[in-house]
Amino acid sequence: MSKLIYLDNAATTKTAPEVLEAMLPYFTEQYGNPSAIYSFASHNKDVVAEQRERIANALGAKSNEIYFTAGGSESDNWALKATAEAYQNKGKHIITTKIEHHAILHTAAYLEERGFEVTYLDVDEYGKVNPADVEAAIRPDTILISVMYANNEIGTIEPIKEIGEIAHKHGILFHTDAVQAFGQVPINVDECHIDMLSASGHKLNGPKGIGFLYIRKGVKIRSFVHGGAQERKRRAGTENVPGIVGIGTATKRAIATMEERTAKEREMRDYLIKRVMEEIPYTKLNGHPTDRLPNNANFCFRFIEGESMLIRLDMAGICGSSGSACTSGSLDPSHVLLAIGLPHEIAHGSLRLTLNEEITKEDIDYVVDQLKTIVSDLRGMSPLYEDFAKKQNK
Ligand SMILES: *Cc1c(COP(=O)(O)O)cnc(C)c1O
């Protein structure tokens, strides 16, 4: 099978050729340490500053508010742990949601073990957080609200502006995990009253192992890595110059191509959803019908195990996902699908397909044709489906 159709862009993306090209000299000729005095290395200092500027511009932020990290997980850990520590004299209550990425949920659990209290907000059947619930959860000792910009499994885009306004009105810090949204939807940190924002290079056609945390000027966050004076003394360690050039170039590219690229993805995604919903019975579309990431489709096929579907799709050269990559390997259904109210047996039959701009109509036709056969084969082997079909025919 030589054909490969990659529909797992929420797990990671291909580094764009122009991004790789921009990075290469920083592995070879331009390897100097940006902290060095000689002019050979000082170019690298300028290059890092230039990437910080590019990213700041993309968010309506200032470049001294961008801190490079090793990725989305580190940014999320930093935002939660370091604000918890810095603001614990004010209070020990944090508000987040039930559908966050594990980088947030497991960090929140870690803080609970250390005496913090966390409220995990429910979401509606489409995975939306209700801003009124956020406001109702606020207590005098609330120090942080963390709500993701867009969900990585079902693609739902959250009412970030409304939540930011509430946080701002109550004088509470607001963090958003924008790892999925950054580069896919326009984001402005001032308009949304965002105090901290996490993003990651490899989710936007940049390299793995590089990300950033936006920290609004004035936020008293603790240093995350102690050592040298890099990242304004808040995150020590010699700068990952190739990675920083990678995420900076990927950001520039994502912003410049956003309109055209996401329009293409949206068109193909809508075509995929239309065909699947029309041609495969007993199927549910998960996530919000309109407020969703342009490249995300997520379905539940009744009477089917997601894992078996993935194996059959793999044999047909199609990469998809069931639940998030971090939970695959475990048999628990996705916490996100449970949070939108799906029963276990239905949540087990989920399939996430996330597109990129290279996916064509022919690709989608091939995928849907394969999917129809696979779903029908697997249902043919399912005793549950047999019972169900018998009842239908009575
Ligand atoms: C991928 C992802 C992360 C983790 O980012 P890494 O760079 O892989 O550490 C965090 N949050 C969300 C929403 C993600 O999709």
Brief summary:
The chain is α/β, with parallel strands linked by helices. The structure holds pyridoxal-5'-phosphate.
Count up the helices: 12
CATH topology of the largest domain: Aspartate Aminotransferase, domain 2
Small molecules bound in the structure, each named once:
pyridoxal-5'-phosphate
Shape: globular
Uncertain parts? none
- Rg is 22 Å
- CATH top level label of the largest domain: Alpha Beta
Question: Mean pLDDT across all residues, rounded?
Answer: 95
Please tell me about this protein's structure.
- This protein has 394 residues and is α/β, with parallel strands linked by helices.
- It has two domains: 5-11 and 258-393, Aspartate Aminotransferase, domain 1 (Alpha-Beta Complex); 17-254, Aspartate Aminotransferase, domain 2, CATH 3.40.640.
- It contains twelve helices and twelve strands.
- The protein has helices spanning 17-23, 39-59, 72-87, 102-113, 131-137, 160-169, 241-279, 306-315, 335-339, 344-347, 361-380, 383-393, and strands at residues 5-6, 66-69, 93-97, 117-121, 142-146, 173-177, 196-200, 211-215, 283-285, 296-301, 318-319, 350-354.
- Helix 1 runs antiparallel to helix 7, helix 2 runs parallel beside helix 7 (241-279) and helix 3 (72-87) packs parallel to helix 4.
- It starts with a strand and ends with a helix.
- Bound molecules: pyridoxal-5'-phosphate (PLP).
- Pyridoxal-5'-phosphate is lined by residues 71-73, 76, 101, 103, 148, 152, 177, 179-180, 200, 202-203, 211.
- Keywords: 2Fe-2S, Cytoplasm, Iron, Iron-sulfur, Metal-binding, Pyridoxal phosphate, Transferase.
- It is an enzyme of class 2 (transferase).
- Pathway: Cofactor biosynthesis; iron-sulfur cluster biosynthesis.
- [2Fe-2S] cluster binds at residue 326.
